[in-house]
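no rush on this but wanted to send it before i forget. what follows is a protein written twice so to speak, once as letters and once as structure tokens for the fold. mainly i need to know what kind of three dimensional shape the backbone takes. thanks a lot i owe you, the record is right below.
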Amino acid sequence: MAIFALVIAASFSLGSRAALLIEPGALTALRLFLASMVMAGAALFTLPKKNWSQIIQPKAFWRFILLGGLMGLYFITMFEALKTTNPVSTGAIFTLLPLFTTAIAFFLLQQSAKPVVLISLTIAAAGSVWVIFRGDVDAILKFNLGRGEYIFLTGTFAHALYAALVRKLNHGEPVMLFSFWTLVGATVAVTPYALGEILATDWTTLPIFVWLTVAYLATVTTAGTFFLLQYAVVRIPAAKATAYVLLTPCYIILLEGIVGVGWAPVGVILGALVTIFGLAILVRAPDV
């Protein structure tokens, strides 16, 4: 899941640039379609022949429409948000995912969090709020979020609901197979919404950077993170699995600094480190 966080962080940095060149719906539909193809090939290559029939005919396809729709909502809101806010801020909002997941898992899965877990998530959330408001105490007191932050809060909640539902809706399918059909469900759910943007996009004039970003998002960020997250949440509690996204702001700050975009102010970096402190407490705590 630490790798999961790094992959997600890179997608924020790349996505902030691609979002200015292509509409979110068109980009999301394309990345999901390509990721489905990648995962289909991986499933055929790795699964025993006895499971191949399930690649063609899944059980209870409605599960994958629901899960895929939630992830599609997350992807679209991310790119919509990146049009008006910066990667570090959106990455900080994403660190609220474990807190959202803990609350949802309590109601849906009866997974109750121990006090040490709640304390660690609260510490991490405090660090995230500090980063989101760039260390501006007056802004924190007014809690005046921008449009992009509000949009991405919706997507982060959808992602948390997805993470909590994976264990509940998995009927014993291999992770690779479950990931493939979730991607198909996401493609089916997103494409009708994005059809207008898809038809309006002049695909032949898109810069090579956009195509490289789509390739990264489809293979590494989408197919890869679907597999990593689903592998984790069926083995450890949902809150603990998603807690590693607390690394996201620090990863983004490092990536943005390394590529020459600029380093975040010291106050923002300190806020990101507070989220790491929260993660350290959570990782050392017994399973929730």
Summary: The two ends are 17 Å apart (CA to CA). Residues 2-284 form one domain.
